[in-house]
Amino acid sequence: MIRARVLLLMGCILVAARAVNAAETPLLTDVPLKIERAEGSKVKLTLPRKADQRYQLYVSHDLKAWDFLGNIIQGANQSITIEYAEPTRRSAFFKVEPRPAFAPIVSRMERGANGQVFLSFPTVVGRRYQAYASLDLMRWENFSDLVDGTGSRAVAEIDPSETPEVFFRVEAVDIVPLPNMVWIRPGTFVMGSPPDEKDRDLDEDPLTQVTFPSGFWMGKFEVTQEEYERIVGTNPSWFKGDPSRPVDQVSWEDAVAYCARLTQTEFAAGRLPLGYVYRLPTEAEFEYACRAGTTTRYSHGDDLDYSQLADYAWYAANGSGTTHPVGGKNPNLFGLHDMYGNVWEWCLDWYRDTYPGGSTVKPTGPVLGVSRVFRGGGWDYRASSCRSAYRNNVLPTRRANYLGFRIVLGPAPL
User: What is the pLDDT of residues 264-283, one digit of tens each?
Assistant: First the structure.
């Protein structure tokens, strides 16, 4: 038998199931989610759909941390069955949330002179647009970056090899960032430090030109203890006493879990479109935002004698052996505080001791690695470690009273 509990919590259906033999769960009349034992360790989830709704499935093993189970499911007047494989045979809890269906923007596909295919659609000033792709008209994935409306037609190029089998649609989307998120505009910068930079390290080269064709939002401040506890329910920090201090003693894994929970909360509230997530910044995003359009050692200049750094950072010389409330020092030219000092900040990337060199677009770092990057200097380190190009790394499981993070809002990295 499949032993299942069905609970109605905050308008969502939670189904906790142990797959033993094929059977149907007790059903609620309004959401008859069906769970069946499938081949091997797989579980089949069958969900009836309405044409005017979209749906998102989630899975959890502890009813605390929830992960997306597949992409968003398009509504239709027929059921859909999703298979879930749990190799460890642990108890799995499932949650389905209805999402409102958005009216698609009228778009057309056009073929260029050289065989290219373009998706063209009208835009309105002040709105943003997202193109989606689907193989089955039920599950949709981001196809383009977020497009700002200009009042004229926008065009997204499509790989011609995909057009015979892939469906496309365009929707006007509304993103409501959390308070204190700063828009980081698109642009190009040179990552790393030149050979003549004072106090540089060998892992800051070769110089690499990085382009961000689309912008992203970044937290104006490091994540505070108050914000972390609101999402996670606990405060692991060593330096307590003021909830506006940055959270510390969080591992890379802790920070990623926080971002996942925050994303699910904001997605469920309708403030995020499909494919947009809160996450850690990539190393390139961090340095781009940290430099804020400058090429000097710090965003406020080369500061060769470190006489100005105390206006921008809490570090060993002025940190008094502790963290401090966020935002207490001057921001950089992008309006970001504590990009230098206070707590070191986790980045998304695996660490590698060289950059790729040449030029690249939206890099996400090595595919594999042992340690994760952290950036920005901290209350416990010397002035030279606060330089825009300075890098550090440690195992992703490491927790320390000098490690914290800030968040980015943008498309989920590939």
Answer: 899 888 788 777 899 999 99
Domain end (from 152, 173, 194): 173
Q: What is the b/e burial string over 97-117, where b = at least 16 CB atoms within 10 angstroms of the residue's CB?
A: bbbeeeeebebeeeeeeeeeb
Cis peptide before 100 (omega within 30 of 0): no
Do 84 and 118 reside in the same domain of the chain?
no
Q: At what angle do helices 225-232 and 252-268 cross, to 10 degrees?
A: 70
| Residue 275 structure tokens | 């494919």
Q: What is the mean pLDDT of residues 169-188?
A: 88
* 341: phi then psi, degrees, rounded to nearest 5: 75, -170
| Shared domain check, 232 and 141 | no
- Is 319 within 8 Å of 329 (Cβ atoms)? no
User: Do 230 and 332 share a domain, yes or no?
Assistant: yes
Long-range contacts of 225-231, Cβ-Cβ distance < 8 Å, separation of 24 or more: 228/258, 231/258, 231/261, 231/262, 231/265
Q: Which amino acid is at 383?
A: A
